[in-house]
Amino acid sequence: MNATVQVRQRGTLTLPVELREKYGIQTGDTFRLVDLDGIFVLTPMVTMVPELAREIERLRLEAGLSTDELLAGLREQRERYYAEHYAELA
In the predicted model, is pLDDT for residue 87 greater than 90? Predict the structure, then answer.
């Protein structure tokens, strides 16, 4: 699809409705604009936190761990990592 967009006051661009509907673009979505020597590429910025949280929760349930058990395990791992990498500096 080719479309013409116009830069408006304060640099605002309006994406054609066909593109917004096709790609599920909603008000407030964030994009990164990459300048490739005058060719502009617009790519969606996907927040990783919700996706990571869903994956951690899936793995926690799959392992049969409670939230407290998961957090305790993470604390143990952090302490072990610190001891292995930084204990000699203290």
Answer: no
